[in-house]
Here is the input.
Amino acid sequence: MADSDNSRTLPPVTRRDFHLALAASLPTYPHLAAGITAPAEACDDDPAVMTWREWCAARLDASKSCRRQQKLEAKLISMAGSPQSAADAWKTADEKLGYSRALDRERKAFIAENRVAEILWYTPAQTIMGATAKLHAIVDKWQPDAACDEHPWPQIRAVIADLLKIDAQMSLQRSGRDQVSPPRRRMATGGG
Here is the structure.
């Protein structure tokens, strides 16, 4: 991202951090976060997860830029009125507040976020976490609000919750810390 000033290196993501972050973004599944028992192993081996992390950082930057621009716009309108009725006052207040610079910064931040999102959509997931990360990005980017109950958002959130549970269980089984006992079989007693 040559035109972005976001050049920081992201710390390694752990499976537990990933699960908790995604569970917290699913307000219709509050019980999910409490049930996360995934190990804290590093999970930087899936390119989709790495790209998702970059997208999350770009998304956060774009959201912050948007909020800053909106605050400055409200302040500008309260100081100068509308740009159509008071063009000179608007220009003077804009120069003082930096609204046009903030608007340009917001535009660039959303372009950067969209670029990383496009890379994410075409990065093949190699793990359940990678596929889950891509679904999370779709939901976070396009659902109208976090608790939207219109089709298909609850269904996609349910799939994300399922994938998180499956990934946690598989991870625990791989690490030998499976906390789920196999179901007990009942003996047939013949007495009905």
